Amino acid sequence: MWRCSRPVPVALRRLSGRSAELRAWRWGSTTACERALQYRVGEKMHGYTVSQVTPVPELFLTAVKLDHDGTGARHLHLAREDSNNLFSVQFRTTPMDSTGVPHILEHTVLCGSQKYPCRDPFFKMLNRSLSTFMNAFTASDYTMYPFSTQNPKDFQNLLSVYLDAAFFPCLRELDFWQEGWRLEHEDPTDPKTALVFKGVVFNEMKGAFADSERVFSQHLQNQLLPDHTYAAVSGGAPLCIPDLTWEQLREFHAKHYHPSNARFLTYGNFPLEEHLRQIHEEALSKFQRIEPNTAVPPQQRWEMPREHHVHCAPDALAAGSPRQTTVSVSFLLPDSLTGPRAANWSQIYLGQKREGSFSNILIGCHSGSFASHALPSRAGAWCERDRGVGLSARCAMDFLITDARSTHPRIFI
Ligand SMILES: [Zn+2]
C-alpha cells in the first residue's frame, strides 16, 4: 500500500519549471533518500514519468514510482543509503497448462542472448562479477530475475546481461532440448539402448514431485483455485512436460516477456536516473506498447465444500511410513489485494507475522471453535503431531490452510 506523498519543499517549488537547476540541486544533496524526495510527480526522464514519491521513514527509504511512456512498464525505486544495490525485473507469467513453459523459459533465456550469444552468459558472470546475489525464480503467476551488487560498474554490466537475456534471448532449439525435455538413448553412444526422457527441468521436477509434501501443497492449490492459471503446475508436471514444443516456448516469451507485462524494481544508493537511462536505451525503447491480457480473473465460489484425495508414495526416511496420511481443510479468503477488505486482511497478516496470533486464535487450543469445526471429529485426539495452520499468499488469491499429519492410519477413514 502506498503512503501519501510528502508536501513539496518550498525551495523545490521555487525551482519548478527549471529542470537544469533542479537536477543540479538534486545531485548536490547528500543522501539517496534526499535526492529521491526531490523528484516531482509528472517529471519526465529517459522515457519515464514519475507517478508517486513517498517517504517511508520507518524503513529509512524513499519510494519513487514511475511509468514508462512508450510501453507502460512500471518501475519502483527504493532509494536508501545502502551500498548493496538491487535490480529485479518481473513478468506476470500465467500458464494454462502444466507443461512447465514459464519454468523452462526461465532456464532457456539464460542460455544466450543477441548481445551475449555465448554459452550461458548468466553463469559466466558468476565468477566475473562482484555480485552479492544472482538468481531467477518461477512462481505460480510470475517469473523474476534479481541481482545485487555494491559496485556501480558491476551493476551496469549485470543489468546489461539481465536485460538482454530477458528481452532478447536467442531461445535456440538446442537450448530448449537441453533445458526442457528430449529423448535420448540410455547410452548416448549406443543407439540400440532404450530411449529415455531427459532434460534439466524435466529431471528437476521429477525430483520435486518425489517429495510428498510438495505433491500435497501443489494439489491443494490446484484444487482450491481450479478455474485459471492456478490449476496448472507452473514448474511443470513430469507427465505433461513432453507436450511442450519449442514453438510454444517462443510464443510464450513473445507474449509474456514484454515491457507492457513487466515490473522493474531497483533499490539502494546508486542514482535512479542512470538505471532508467540504461533500461530505456538497451531494452524498452525497442518495444511498442501491447495489451498482454495476462491478468488472472477471480475464482468463482462454489456452494458446497469439495473433497479431493491424492495418493503418493510414503516418505521412506520417515518413521512409520504407513502413518503418513495428511488431511487439510482449506478456505479461499476474500480478495485481499484489490477488494474492499484489503486493509483488514493486511492487518491480519501483520498480526500473524508479528505474533502468530491469527494461527493461535484459530487452532491454538483444543477448545478453539475453528479447530473443533474444521477438522474431523476424532482428529483432535490423534493429530498432536505436525498440526498447523497458515495463510498462503503464493498467488493473487489467498487461502487459509489447516493441516494435520495423522499418527494413526485409520483416522481419516
Ligand atoms: Zn529450475
Automatic annotation (TrEMBL):
Question: What GO MF terms are annotated?
Answer: metal ion binding; metalloendopeptidase activity
One GO cellular component term noted in the UniProt record for this chain = mitochondrial matrix
Q: Which PANTHER family match?
A: PRESEQUENCE PROTEASE, PRESEQUENCE PROTEASE, MITOCHONDRIAL
Per the record, the GO terms for biological process are: protein processing
Protein name per Swiss-Prot or TrEMBL: Pitrilysin metallopeptidase 1
Which parts of the sequence belong to the Peptidase M16 N-terminal domain?
95-175
Q: Where on the tree of life does the source sit, at the highest rank?
A: Eukaryota
By its UniProt entry, which SUPFAM superfamilies does this protein fall under? LuxS/MPP-like metallohydrolase
